[in-house]
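User: Study the shape:
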Amino acid sequence: MSAARPASGLFADPRPIEALGDLFANVWQVCYVTPDLDRGMQELRDLFGIENMTEVPVEGASFLKAGERQQWDVRVAMGARGGLIVELIEPIAGEVEFYRRALGDGAVLGLHHLAMLVPLGDEAWEALQRLLAEHGMAFEYTILIPDRARLAYVDTSEQLGHWIELCQLEKADTDFFSGLIAESA
């Protein structure tokens, strides 16, 4: 039996994934979609007190569907308030309809996914793909950010009402996100 991930470190070594439920022990981020990033960031600041919402660049990221590079244009912001990272995505163009589905009529924010850390390395990544396949799931989209992250979206909207994002984060990203948390209220 695996040990529980320590609550003292959001980016502590993730719990090994032996069952899909282990992923929930590794949640480090919640993501909302918005039709207007500036308005969404203001809403998170004013209503929820997430004062450090900051737009982050997406240049250099490769967005893949079934291993094929796709056109993908989004704006992204990140922030925190002493705990989980809150991500905000504005879908602009290209392969972004799966984001837009999270928005209701006139909604400023719609829940899109929970992000879950997975252990680093190809072996862990491939084992997770096999585990998902056993349950009729797969990586629908993959995002590669050189020297920072490998991410995969899994559509669990039928089961959970939202997507999950599986994340292998390198030190540069965990340092950035830890800084956001440390600087938050």
Notes: Residues 22-183 form a domain with the 2,3-Dihydroxybiphenyl 1,2-Dioxygenase; domain 1 fold (CATH 3.10.180.10). The chain has one domain: 22-183.
